[in-house]
Amino acid sequence: MTTKIYTITYNWSKKIAVKIGITRIHFPGLHGILLRFSGVNLSLLSRVMSSRLSRGTYNGGLLSTEAGTLARVVADATITLAGFLGESPNYKFLHQATSAPPISYYDYIIIGGGTAGCPLATTLSQKATVLLLERGGSPYGNPNITDLAAFGKALSDLSPSSPSQRFISEEGVINARARVLGGGSCLNAGFYTRADSQYVRAAGWDGRLVNESYGWVEKMVAFEPPILRWQAAVRDGLLEAGVSPYNGFTYDHLLGTKVGGTIFDGDGRRHTAADLLRFANPKGLTAKKVIIIGLTGKKRPLAHGVVFRDASGIKHRAYLNSGPKNEIIISAGALGSPQLLMLSGIGPSDHLKAHNISVVLDQPLVGQGMSDNPMNAIFVPSPSPVEVSLIQVVGITQFGSYIEAASGEPFVAMPAEKDFGMFSPKIGQLSTLPPKQRTPEALSQAIESMKALDPAVFRGGFILEKILGPISTGHLALKTKSPHDNPTVTFNYFKDPQDLARCVHGLKVIETVIESKAFSPFRYDYLSLPILLNMTASTPVNLLPKHANVSTSLEQFCKDTVMTIWHYHGGCQVGRVVDADYRVVGVDGLRVVDGSTFIYSPGTNPQATVMMLGR
């Protein structure tokens, strides 16, 4: 038994493109259809059982994904577990794509080594051979990912090798998608909390298995955060505002105010879904890309294997072993999974034909039901220093708004490099430079000018609200046939009036917290609530039109200052695109397991539930 992991990154110097279009295989009655994966940086984790490398013939063609790549390789080995919590894991099953065999065989192929894909691959590796595909590199050794004090720097990194890929919704809200092993758990603010029991019942999940799976995740990546002055003031302010009872520290989703978990440990080190690979069977993991085959004589298309090109342009093929349970599983996220299906010919037929994509399955619901939980925040300058804190305390209100807070240097000013955290001209959240003006030269000039400002201007933090659901939905569509390009996505923020009402309720709670006795040490008396609202609204957080004096209308403030909290979901929803077991309706051997299957976002932060789902 051998173990292999490939980490593949895009060769930007050669710019070898993923082939687009239909790959036709010259077998009578058969044609292969490319199941394309958005983006090209792949981290490949593979489990290979040499005794099961069946060389059986397949009377079918391939759908090939061919990506230009650079890669790293590590020789076959077992995982070293010692010292894992304090150091980067020594995943010695890493291999370079250029060293991959021309043909290989697996029981399962997973596309996307993110928040769902890593625990999914780990789980399946116990009894089967697994090929895991991830377009990004490793999170380990990158302090912009691992260090709490550096939060926001990965999001503001616009380079081709960044673990974050920016996209902008059609409304003009600036957003990001992960391209790194561990997915969004490498970029987020770290809050860890479970879905509520009603959500679990509505999803039709086995409650016992859900709890066991949450527990499995929590052994590795969840911690109780230290509550210091800023977070304590927010907690006590929420209780003064009537968001009660106080539920203490808990992972559970309970009405009232609580302290939730975090994926940052006591040393401020991030633990991600990639850490869950520690539990993988070290005797088998690898990664590449997907294939769907249309078989004449069968009523349904069949997912069959993957093809990719390495940095040298050499083609490698990975097939599913023969067997009724062997499958390809897409875990490419709420943008990547529906995009991948569409590029493979599974989606609305008219839309696919408009892009000259052969239709394998007319499925008009692929890409529908896209939602992003809108976030609105109020920046509160503080007369006294505040600790570095990400999301730790949450107020879960009865009207469907969640109140959270964050503070300190990651959000305002980073003395070491003066990138100014969430005020960075590079980021949408409270950026100081309008998005259309964010050229490299303008970014440098803006950062230099900000260095001259009094540091007190940036001292403080945010109190924010995110709404339940949301009810408002939009859609995703292909922009081009290239998997390198982001699709277009429309979320229709606040289209449903109930979403807007929840935002207004949440802002009123935030106002009460700011004016509470508990929060008074962190508030300038002369900065009234209208001033704080207008000050926050004056920052170019998005591309939406602005209105003067939004403090007179909280509804307008919600609309003008809407931001993402990166909890977007939908596009491959259960009961619409996949069935209750996450099988793609109308296609054999293919499932989707990630946040694209959600109707609503679970709890106050979805990452715990996405990892649980993968398990």
TrEMBL record:
<dbReference type="Pfam" id="PF05199">
    <property type="entry name" value="GMC_oxred_C"/>
</dbReference>
<keyword id="KW-0285">Flavoprotein</keyword>
<dbReference type="InterPro" id="IPR051871">
    <property type="entry name" value="GMC_Oxidoreductase-Related"/>
</dbReference>
<dbReference type="InterPro" id="IPR007867">
    <property type="entry name" value="GMC_OxRtase_C"/>
</dbReference>
<dbReference type="InterPro" id="IPR036188">
    <property type="entry name" value="FAD/NAD-bd_sf"/>
</dbReference>
<dbReference type="InterPro" id="IPR012132">
    <property type="entry name" value="GMC_OxRdtase"/>
</dbReference>
<keyword id="KW-0732">Signal</keyword>
<comment type="similarity">
    <text>Belongs to the GMC oxidoreductase family.</text>
</comment>
<feature type="domain" description="Glucose-methanol-choline oxidoreductase N-terminal">
    <location>
        <begin position="333"/>
        <end position="347"/>
    </location>
</feature>
<dbReference type="InterPro" id="IPR000172">
    <property type="entry name" value="GMC_OxRdtase_N"/>
</dbReference>
<keyword id="KW-0274">FAD</keyword>
<dbReference type="Pfam" id="PF00732">
    <property type="entry name" value="GMC_oxred_N"/>
</dbReference>
<protein>
    <recommendedName>
        <fullName>Glucose-methanol-choline oxidoreductase N-terminal domain-containing protein</fullName>
    </recommendedName>
</protein>
